[in-house]
Amino acid sequence: IDLSARLRRAIEADALEVHYQPQYNVEDGRLLGAEALLRWTDPELGPISPGRFIPLAEQTGLIVELGGWVLRRVIEQGHRWRAAGYPPIRLAVNVSALQFQRVPIDQQVGQLLEDFEFPADQLELEITESALMADPSRARRILQRLRERGVHFAIDDFGTGYSSMAQLKRFPVDTLKIDKSFVDGLAEDDAAGSADDRSIARSIVGLGHGLGLTVLAEGVETAEQLAVLRELGCDHYQGFYASRPVPTLEFEALLTSAPGTP
Ligand code: G
Ligand code: G
Ligand code: MN
Ligand code: NA
């Protein structure tokens, strides 16, 4: 059977998994939230990366079910953590561009928040610039509706797209995520591009703060990168330096032992 039939089967059988990558405050190392990241292991083919199956789900229309599945799974998990008395954190869920175009996520998310009595302000949706720019007025309406309920929005992979400041300030977003590609070279002395990466990161922090937004750096792998981000005034970060995306139980251990950088 083909890969998309396997994926459909996996969704129906609840055989996908969500891993959580913690997000921290740069200044004091406090655990603030986590990005939910899908993981799929096919019984015969082994692990298949979301970089492969998300585009497939988009092509086949399965993204509707898949997107709904991951939102439900994360909100349900968030509800459980709340009920169990874990400290409140914000959970971030990726919404792909085609998913955003095809699924009325305002309705989908609104319903799930009600079903699980989940506080809207503990949910963040990550969207790319290109998803917003495909149909800016529709995007604005959808974001507005969810923002009114309290849902947060982050712009994922920021800096790799082409949105202008003028466009950006018209969307009710809360966070800019500095793309990993600009974080990679942040701390290398004299390496080609490292001065550029620092300039870009500095500009994004300035732009974000100028618009009243939080700025988060992703893909932070070293203490040196984190030190540069602290110098630049970047607010939050995630990355292998602190933690990889981890399964639910491991994340619970992090929640229990919070706060603190590793
Ligand atoms: O976790 P990893 O780095 O392998 O993810 C690869 C890509 O897949 C990233 O771009 C990430 O945003 C995307 N991705 C992971 N989980 C989800 C998900 O639940 N929904 C969507 N739309 N994309 C996801
Ligand atoms: O596109 P998006 O930003 O959602 O993708 C997040 C992806 O980046 C996930 O697949 C996650 O596993 C990966 N990731 C997170 N932190 C790091 C890191 O420090 N280094 C590397 N190489 N990948 C990371
Ligand atoms: Mn993301
Ligand atoms: Na990203």
Automatic annotation (TrEMBL):
- The source's domain of life comes to Bacteria
Boundaries of every EAL domain copy: 1-259
Record protein name field = cyclic-guanylate-specific phosphodiesterase
Span covered, complete protein: 847 to 1108 of 1110
